[in-house]
Amino acid sequence: MRAYIFMLAALTCFLSGAGHAADMRPKIAILPFDNSLDKKFRGLGEGMPDILTACFTAENVPADILDRGALPAIGAEQTINFDPSKFRKLEGVTHLLRGSLAPQDTGIIVTLMLYDLASTKLVASASAGGGLADIPATACTGARQLGEKLPALAAVTAPETGMDNVQAEQSRLMIEGLGFYYNGAYEKAFPPFMKLMRADPANAAAVYWLAKSYAGAGMDDQAKIEFERFVKDFPKDPRVAEVKDILKPKKE
């Protein structure tokens, strides 16, 4: 009987520890990046949350990323007087990630800054540089460096199984599609985003970026169809206001 009680106690401790480890996983909300300093990167700052969400998965960083649709409208605002305390009401979020983009010769520097919402202090940062031809890879390098620097992330062991094949494939497709998009190869971005939509119809980012790719390629009718789908299926996404502006009839 004593042996049974001892085994039960040990099992309880183990499960409690596993639950605690899961609780330690940072829950991160990613904001659009500040790219107001250089018009060359207009639009890229808005895409960074989707790029980095895919990067965190691809790099197997043990953190949970808040769905972008759960961000309040203030999440789209980037001001010099950034105040992380305004985001404290985000349910279940422990950290806020924002950053900046800056030119570097013929390339770009991506800087990531992670804030602890409890203290509102900057707790970790990372910078990565690379060519304009491979922005997603540069962002993923920054994500990996950030994961290595943050004690809260380093203290948590990633699941032994790692990410499953579905997550890995979806992350790869998002990074591939955004890589084509930001290199102006809009038509090459169609297949990755289409595959994402077929695999996960609830993937708002896939619908948004497919629509943007159609628009970039001059396929306005197809873009309109996907933008309308986006507004209808994802009414709470913070990008809806931008999309509604795009859908407004153009003045002659």
CATH superfamily of the largest domain: TolB, N-terminal domain
State the order of secondary-structure elements, H for helix, E for strand.
HEHEEEEHHHHHHH
CATH-level-2 architecture of the largest domain: 3-Layer(aba) Sandwich
Query: Major beta sheet, specifics?
Result: 5 strands, mixed
Q: Count the helices. How many?
A: 9
- Helix and strand content put the structural class at alpha/beta
What portion of the residues fall into strands of 2 or more residues?
A: 5-15%
Number of domains: 2
Give a quick precis of the structure.
This protein is α/β, with parallel strands linked by helices. It has 2 domains: 24-154, Rossmann fold (3-Layer(aba) Sandwich), CATH 3.40.50; 165-247, Serine Threonine Protein Phosphatase 5, Tetratricopeptide repeat. The protein has 9 helices and 5 strands.
Explain the overall architecture:
By secondary structure, this protein is an alpha/beta fold. The protein has two domains: 24-154, 3-Layer(aba) Sandwich (Rossmann fold); 165-247, Serine Threonine Protein Phosphatase 5, Tetratricopeptide repeat (Alpha Horseshoe). Helices cover 49% and strands 15% of the residues. It contains nine helices and five strands. It has a five-stranded mixed beta sheet with strand order 2-1-3-4-5, covered by helices on one side. Helix 2 (44-58) runs antiparallel to helix 5 (165-181) and helix 5 (165-181) runs parallel beside helix 7 (204-216). The longest helix is centred in the N-terminal third of the chain and has 23 residues, at 2-24. The radius of gyration is 20 Å and the shape is globular. The N and C termini lie far apart (86 Å). 37% of the residues are buried. Mean pLDDT is 78; it is low at 3-22 and 153-161.
